[in-house]
Write a structure and sequence with these properties.
The chain has about 210 residues and is an alpha+beta fold. The protein is about 30% helix and about 25% strand. The longest helix is centred in the middle third of the chain and has 20 residues. One of its GO terms (cellular component) is midbody.
């Protein structure tokens, strides 16, 4: 991969998903034939919702994380109207869709996902990164069905590990965040318990 990209460097394939600020497409880097997922976001939308700083932080954090259970961010580029993130392609898609299809996971499958999530979060926390929005929609599945944490939009690099910002998704929020208290990386540990329940039962405990 080069360090200077433009849209002309990629063959764009089918859409993989759509979000609030743009869409994700299957793509191939022309010279290497390397398959990636290209996340395309409109600058106007990012400005409208005042999330430019959040995106900058997401890029900075995710591009420095290298772990088998964390989706890789290879790089980014922009043009006049859009910002593009070059992401690792996870062929088996969202874990959320697998859970909907299966209704709930058996013990072995649930334990495998929770273990993989544990080792990925241990790595994040060792690098002073708090994800703050772990949920099935933000977990993808790789070529061999292995779990990968994605979407670091709410993540923060917190060497002091003492935060007060309320963020994430209500079903997965720990009490200290709901009560607007001070919290640390243990907010991610809380979601492990919530997800263990959800994987085995088929719905979050506090829905």
């Amino acid at each position: 991969f080069t360090t200077e990209w433009a849209l002309k460097d990629f063959d764009i394939g089918r859409p993989l998903g759509k979000g609030k600020f743009g869409s994700v497409y299957l793509a191939r880097e022309k010279s290497s034939k390397f398959i990636i997922a290209l996340k395309v976001m409109f600058k106007s939308q990012l400005q409208k919702y005042e999330v430019e700083t959040q995106l900058r932080r997401e890029i900075e954090i995710q591009s420095h994380l290298r772990h088998p259970h964390i989706l890789k961010l290879y790089g980014w580029f922009h043009d006049k109207t859009r910002i593009y993130l070059i992401l690792e392609y996870a062929p088996k898609g969202e874990l959320y869709k697998e859970l909907i299809k299966a209704t709930r996971f058996d013990d072995k499958r649930a334990a495998t996902y929770i273990y993989q999530l544990c080792v990925a979060l241990k790595y994040c926390h060792a690098n002073k990164v708090i994800h703050r929005d772990i949920k099935p929609e933000n977990l993808l599945l790789g070529f061999n069905g292995e779990l990968k944490i994605a979407d670091f939009g709410w993540s923060v690099h917190a060497p002091s590990s003492r935060r007060k910002t309320i963020c994430g998704t209500v079903d997965y929020m720990p009490p200290e965040m709901v009560e607007c208290g001070v919290y640390d990386e243990k907010v991610d540990i809380w979601t492990l318990g919530v997800l263990t329940y959800e994987f085995l039962v088929g719905k979050p405990p506090f829905e």
